[in-house]
Amino acid sequence: MAEARKKITLPYLFKKVADGEPITWLTCYDYPTAYLQEQAGIEMILVGDSLGMTMLGYESTLPVTMDDMIRHSQAVRRGAPTAFVVGDMPYMTYQPSVETAIRNAGRFMAEAGCDAIKLEGGAVMADRIKGIVDSGIPAIGHLGLTPQSVSALGGFRVQGKSAELAKKIVDDAKALEQAGAFMILLEMVPDRLCKIITERAENCIIMSLGSGPDAHGQLLIYHDMFGLYPRFKPKMAKVFGNAGEVILNGLTAYHDEVISRKFPQQENWFGMPDEEYNELVKMLGRIK
Ligand code: KIV
Predict the structure, then answer these.
(1) Is 267 helix (H, G, I), strand (E, B) or coil?
(2) Is the Cβ atom of 27 under 6 angstroms away from ligand 1?
(3) If you placed Cys at 243, which of 172, 226, 251, 253 could pair as Cys (CB 3.0 to 4.6 Å)?
(4) What is d(CA 38, CA 34) in angstroms, rounded to the nearest whole number?
(5) With bands split at pLDDT 50, 70 and 90, how would you rate the model's confidence at 156?
(6) Is 125 in the pocket of ligand 1 (CB under 6 A)?
(7) Does the annotation mark 187 as catalytic?
(8) pLDDT digits (tens, 9 = 90+) for 50-71
(9) Is the pTM of this model over 0.85?
């Protein structure tokens, strides 16, 4: 039998970086998927506020609440006891003040057993990161395409293509690192910008989502990988299997078999002994 995996810790992640080995990271929002990701050896799990779109069917991530996030994070923790689970702070749970940020970050740790939190934004969020880290909670920054600001950014598009905007992202990354972020996620920035930020990082792990191969590891959205999000598929997502198609075929077959009375068959139901059945019929006869 394969040896059970040890808990993934911060020192483990930094050792991977030192050894030049890429870190694997996926989104996940529920118990059975977390169980499968744990079995597959995925090291980090992001309980992303993208669950607002992928699981709850909202048009954006903005309506997601802390209570939504805590419930899903708890389910993921139960399914993946050794993965490094990151709770994603939803819209307006850290922007108002440092104190709000610390309180809500604390909920992920105390109520859901998360290992770290992630929040979106650059230098303007450095004081939130510092406050959270000073409270003993590992924090991850998120730069580039930050979905909570999608309206201000002008849509789901690559960020930092001009030298000026790229320089701002480089400066933001340094500010987050100096504030104590142990990791920064770069979403949809050009590959060469990601490489520069990764090379300049001193004590900070850089992860890529659609930002090329030169980061310390990769993140993908689980629903995009398996054809499970019906509205669109971003370019950066490779489809590793079409589970959506498999499930749709199964559902159609179920529908057809029920209406044609092919399902259920004897092996799909439960019987009772003849004597008990006969006794029941007698009892019902007497009652009548
Ligand atoms: O919510 C999420 O899944 C995220 C990813 C888009 C990085 O923040």
Answers:
(1) helix
(2) yes
(3) 226
(4) 6
(5) confident
(6) no
(7) yes
(8) 999 999 999 999 999 999 999 9
(9) yes
